[in-house]
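User: Please fill in residues for this 108-position structure.
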């Protein structure tokens, strides 16, 4: 897929749809995909830096561990999305949400 990130993952159905588009629309989608990739990788890096700081300040409690785990899964989700693997990104985000609810039950 010319113009798309090298590790971008799409299914056969999406590939057929992309192939059916005029070149200018494919290029516009590729530009958006590349911008999304950059934004998600940047966000993942920021979250990972924040996580390192939070780990140093953690009190070691179960709720703290669950919260930090949720933050790590959030970063993994962003990285999966940056690769175009949206099914995996959604799965990882749901896992992050479960850990967050466990850590912060008052938010439910």
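Assistant: Residues filled in for all 108 positions:
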């Amino acid at each position: 897929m010319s113009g798309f990130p090298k590790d971008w993952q799409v299914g056969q159905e999406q590939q057929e749809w992309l192939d059916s588009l005029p070149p200018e629309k494919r290029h516009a989608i590729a530009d958006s995909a590349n911008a999304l990739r950059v934004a998600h990788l940047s966000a993942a890096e920021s979250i990972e830096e924040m996580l390192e700081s939070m780990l140093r300040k953690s009190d070691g409690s179960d709720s703290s561990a669950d919260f930090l785990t949720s933050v790590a899964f959030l970063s993994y989700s962003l990285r999966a999305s940056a690769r175009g693997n949206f099914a995996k990104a959604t799965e990882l985000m749901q896992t992050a949400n479960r850990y967050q609810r466990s850590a912060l039950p008052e938010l439910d």
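For context: The radius of gyration is 17 Å.
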